[in-house]
Structures are given as structure tokens and as C-alpha cells.
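step=encode ok
step=design start
structure_in=
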């Protein structure tokens, strides 16, 4: 199998050498928030390996911290993974291994490789040394095995308060790797855990728990992000000294960063808690539920992750690149419809009755289909397609000017009726009757083509258009809240073809000449749409 990246090269070697016979990966989210586009990257890598090599991928909740985790997130995470189209093999909780982890800790104590330490968190930090100087050994480092076992059992029995005692691995306070300087592996936390409730008051640290989880499950390649590179020696130390025969291999890759996009769950949670956004699924959020609501197709997100590939060095991807992937997919899949914003009423004075045009849904679709669009003497056009005092080279409708109505006729603006406040009430126009699209015998050369809707046969639409939640980074500005774009959501109303009447999530359309929109429920009579992405890159550059 040809390797697409360095992870697959490692796997190919391991398969060829016989080190492994089947690839086993896992996706280990911490249930302390909703998944975001960065997690999609990790999902694509781990589930991508399962799919490519016919292996397995477990969903494992990293719920070793009782304080921050919640059931709400567990359900949301599963919905998001399914939405992306991935299927996990086993669903597991790190907390299911608490017994095994405790057993491993006891084993380390018995081997003289772990000790109970009474230093405070601050003292531990202070004695850890620096990148250039070694740490100093804890005065509790040489407690006897018996004393350590006794104290650890009493930690478990709840005799000590939070932070009063910890269990540390006994490795090397002079190691050049700070992570190896007697790291804490167990701590006392008196808190109810969402899964194990009040069974435990000692909890394993991530660096101790993760390798054990991987080893118990027989994970072959434990793929994680670069910040864990320096933790790998500790990962290997735990696997080795806890006596696991099958040794999982940790491989690090660069986390996904996107311009003007903050993915840290802490920050996203703040946006939600402070009501800067309307919830985790606000269409401006980089969460998967936000993107779903915005109308991003899961296929486009997977395509994006595939195209940016897997790298060993951190970098930042332009957010417009994700937009481009979304646009590419929608161009092939989203039906075109006509909708108009800030509508202007147009009455055709020389036209009676009603007719229907057969209109193609999407010229780029794999399967060509069409629909009927009705036409009458009363229409709406987009507010931006009519100007009383047009600038030079304005090719849309203007007094005494001509324009083509897409798929229908050429019309001429004869007269404008105004409201008392000077705004346009109605445009009276005449139809060039022999100019029907496809059978135009008028001989008129008309440059502008605009969309329209039949005022007698349309539905009100309420739409939201979005800009990035964050403004570009500025020198010296470190607090994200100072970069918040207060103008990131705009409501704009109009009318759309009758066809939109039944639109519902996750229906997606191209509103011709405007952008791609996704249905998002109803508001009274109006069908609500979120703009997914503009038609061209230039739209985003302009806005
Ligand atoms: P955050 O910092 O956003 O809270 P996290 O790393 O704490 O993210 P976890 O729930 O622990 O979130 O992550 C689950 C998996 O997703 C981990 O393997 C993690 O490395 C990976 N992951 C998280 N963010 C990214 C990202 N931006 N790019 C790639 N992988 C990521
Ligand atoms: Mg984490």
C-alpha cells in the first residue's frame, strides 16, 4: 500500500517487518467540550488509517479528570463523529480502566519505581529544575515500598485531602527531559466522576493513564499531536514498566491551525458562556455542530483534512482553503435556486397570465435534473439589481434600461413609483415578448442577467450571513476577546422560489448570484437560511 505520509510509512514498515498484523488506532477525546475542526483532523487521521488498512479504531473517552467532564459532551461527540461518516469499533471510557491503572501503580510501587510524595504542587514545580539545570530529589523519594504501599492505600481510602499527597514515578531528577523528572502519576481529588461516581478519590494523570489505555486495548499506533512529543519517553516508560507485552507506539503529528480561528475548548466555552455566540452550534463557531448548522457538508470537511495532509511541523492553514473545499463540493451538489434580498417589486404592464419555465437544477451535477419555475406579471428582483441613479457601466435594471431575467425574458424599466420617503415602491416595466430565453428573436444586446422570483408564487426567506468571529491578529494583542468581530452576523430578508418552501436541514442550495445557503428551520412563514460560503473567494476578501 502506498504511503501518503510519514505515519503510513511507519505503518507500512511495521506491517512488512511483522511487528504488527493489523492496524489498531483510537480517537481519545476528553468529554469537556464539543468537537471542533481540529478534532476532525485527528478523526480523519485515525479513522482514515482504519479504513485504509482494514484495521480498527476505538472511540475512547479520556475521562480521567472528574472535575471538567460532562455527559452532555459525550452525546454530542458521538453525533459529530457519526455525522462525519466514521464508525468506531469499540466505545470505551478511560474510567473503565481505573482498576487496572491502580493495579499498575501498585506494581510500580512494588518494583520500587513509584513513591508517595508529600510536597505541594508548588514545591514539586520549584524542585523540578529547568531546561538547563537538573531538579532536586524529593525528601520522600526513598520511602520504603511498605510505607509507600500503605500511604497509597490510605490515599485511595480517602484519608488525605486534595493535594496533600501524590504518587510520583521514580525515574530521574537529572533527566534532560523534564517530563522524566519524577512525574506525578496519581493525585487525590475528592469529586464525583460522571461515570464512576464516588468510587474513587484518587485519579491517574493523563501521562500515566493514556499509555495504559492504549496498551490494554492493543492499540498499535497511538497518534497524537506534537505537544506530546516530549512525553513519549514517559509513555514508553509506563508501557515498559507496567509489564505490557504488546507495546503501542506513539506517533506525533502537527495539530491543525486555521487563520483567525481559535479552537481551544476553553476559549470556545467562554464565547458560549458569555453569550458572544448563540451556543456551541452557532454557525460562526469552528465546532463540528456549528459547521453542521452553518451547512458545511461533512464530505467537504473530510476532503479538506485529506488535502492539507499530515505534517510533522506546525503551521497555519488559510481559512479560505476550507471555504474552497466547501465551495467545490457544493458546486457539484447544491441545486441552484433564485432568491432575492431587499426585494424590489416589478410589475410587467404588457404581460398577462402565468407561464412556467423548465429550469436546470445544477449544470455541474452528476445527474442532471430540472424543475418548473413560474412566471407572472408581478415579480421581485434583488434590491441591488435596480438603481435609480446608476454608476457608469451599470448593467442591471435602471430607468429606461433593459435587463434579462434569468431563464425568462428581457424587460425594460418604463416608470418608477416612489413611496413618500423617496424609496422605490414599484418598478413598472414592459416585457420584450419575443426575447424568451432560448428563443430570443429580439435582436437586443443586453449585458445584465439577474435573478427574480414570481411575487405570486414565492416564499419569504430570512437569511443570516457571517464573517469570521475573529479579526486578524495584531501585534501586541494577545487577548482573543480584543480581536472579536462585533459585526460577524447580518440578517437579511427576501423572497425565494416556491421550491424553498419545504427546505429543511441539511438541505443546501446555491442562491444564484448570491452564495450557498443551508436551511435552518422556520421563523413564522419565513424559511430560515444560513449562508455557508460565498460564491467566489473575492466575496470574502471584500466583506
Ligand atoms: P483543545 O485544546 O481544543 O481543548 P484537546 O487536545 O484538549 O483540544 P482532546 O479532546 O483532548 O482535545 O482531543 C482529542 C484528540 O483530538 C487528541 O488526540 C488531540 O490531539 C486531537 N486534537 C485536538 N485538537 C486538534 C487539532 N487542532 N489538530 C489536530 N488534532 C487535534
Ligand atoms: Mg486535551
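sequence_out=
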Amino acid at each position: 500500500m502506498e504511503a501518503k505520509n510519514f505515519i503510513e510509512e511507519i505503518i507500512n514498515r511495521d506491517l512488512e517487518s511483522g511487528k504488527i498484523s493489523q492496524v489498531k488506532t483510537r480517537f481519545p477525546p476528553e468529554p469537556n467540550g464539543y468537537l471542533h475542526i481540529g478534532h476532525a483532523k485527528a478523526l480523519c487521521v485515525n479513522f482514515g488509517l482504519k479504513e485504509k488498512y482494514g484495521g480498527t479504531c476505538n472511540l475512547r473517552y479520556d475521562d480521567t479528570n472528574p472535575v471538567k467532564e460532562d455527559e452532555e459532551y459525550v452525546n454530542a461527540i458521538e453525533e459529530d463523529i457519526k455525522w462525519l461518516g466514521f464508525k468506531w469499533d469499540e466505545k470505551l471510557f478511560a474510567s473503565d480502566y481505573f482498576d487496572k491503572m491502580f493495579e499498575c501503580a501498585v506494581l510500580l510501587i512494588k518494583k520500587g519505581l513509584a513513591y508517595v510524595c508529600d510536597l505541594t504542587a508548588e514545591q514539586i514545580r520549584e524542585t523540578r529544575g529547568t531546561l538547563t539545570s537538573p531538579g532536586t530529589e524529593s525528601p520522600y523519594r526513598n520511602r520504603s515500598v511498605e510505607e509507600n504501599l500503605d500511604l497509597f492505600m490510605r490515599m485511595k481510602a480517602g484519608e488525605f485531602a486534595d493535594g496533600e499527597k501524590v504518587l510520583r514515578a521514580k525515574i530521574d531528577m537529572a533527566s534532560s527531559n523534564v517530563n522524566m523528572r519524577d512525574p506525578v502519576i496519581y493525585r487525590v481529588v475528592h469529586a464525583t466522576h460522571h461515570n464512576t461516581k464516588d468510587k474513587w478519590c484518587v485519579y491517574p494523570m493523563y501521562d500515566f493513564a493514556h499509555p495504559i489505555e492504549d496498551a490494554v486495548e492493543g492499540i498499535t499506533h497511538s497518534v497524537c499531536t506534537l505537544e506530546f512529543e516530549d512525553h513519549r519517553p514517559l509513555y514508553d516508560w509506563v508501557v515498559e514498566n507496567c509489564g505490557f507485552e504488546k507495546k503501542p507506539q506513539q506517533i506525533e503529528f502537527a495539530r491543525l491551525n486555521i487563520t483567525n480561528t481559535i479552537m481551544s475548548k476553553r476559549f470556545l466555552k467562554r464565547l458560549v458562556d458569555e453569550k458572544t455566540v448563540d451556543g456551541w452550534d452557532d454557525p460562526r463557531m469552528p465546532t463540528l455542530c456549528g459547521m453542521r448548522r452553518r451547512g458545511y457538508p461533512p464530505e467537504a470537511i473530510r476532503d479538506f483534512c485529506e488535502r492539507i495532509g499530515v505534517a510533522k511541523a506546525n503551521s497555519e492553514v488559510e481559512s479560505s482553503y476550507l471555504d474552497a473545499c466547501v465551495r467545490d463540493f457544493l458546486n457539484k451538489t447544491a441545486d441552484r435556486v433564485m432568491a432575492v434580498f431587499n426585494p424590489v417589486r416589478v410589475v410587467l404592464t404588457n404581460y398577462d397570465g402565468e407561464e412556467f419555465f423548465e429550469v436546470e437544477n445544477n449544470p455541474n451535477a452528476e445527474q442532471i435534473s430540472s424543475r418548473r419555475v413560474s412566471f407572472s406579471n408581478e415579480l421581485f428582483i434583488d434590491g441591488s439589481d435596480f438603481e435609480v441613479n446608476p454608476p457608469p457601466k451599470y448593467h442591471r435594471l435602471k430607468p429606461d434600461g433593459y435587463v434579462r431575467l434569468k431563464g425568462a425574458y428581457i424587460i425594460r424599466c418604463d416608470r418608477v413609483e416612489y413611496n413618500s420617503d423617496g424609496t422605490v415602491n414599484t418598478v413598472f416595466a414592459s416585457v420584450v415578448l419575443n426575447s424568451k430565453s432560448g428563443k430570443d428573436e429580439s435582436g437586443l444586446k443586453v449585458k445584465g442577467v439577474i435573478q427574480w422570483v414570481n411575487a405570486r408564487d414565492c416564499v419569504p426567506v430570512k437569511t443570516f450571513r457571517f464573517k469570521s468571529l475573529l479579526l486578524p491578529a495584531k501585534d501586541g494583542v494577545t487577548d482573543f476577546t480584543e480581536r472579536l468581530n462585533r459585526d460577524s452576523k447580518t440578517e437579511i430578508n427576501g423572497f425565494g422560489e416556491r421550491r424553498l418552501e419545504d427546505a429543511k436541514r441539511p438541505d443546501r442550495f446555491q442562491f444564484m448570484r448570491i452564495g450557498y445557503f443551508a436551511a435552518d428551520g422556520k421563523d413564522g412563514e419565513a424559511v430560515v437560511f444560513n449562508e455557508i460560503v460565498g460564491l467566489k473567494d473575492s466575496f470574502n476578501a471584500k466583506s
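step=design ok
step=annotate ok -> The longest strand covers residues 410-418.
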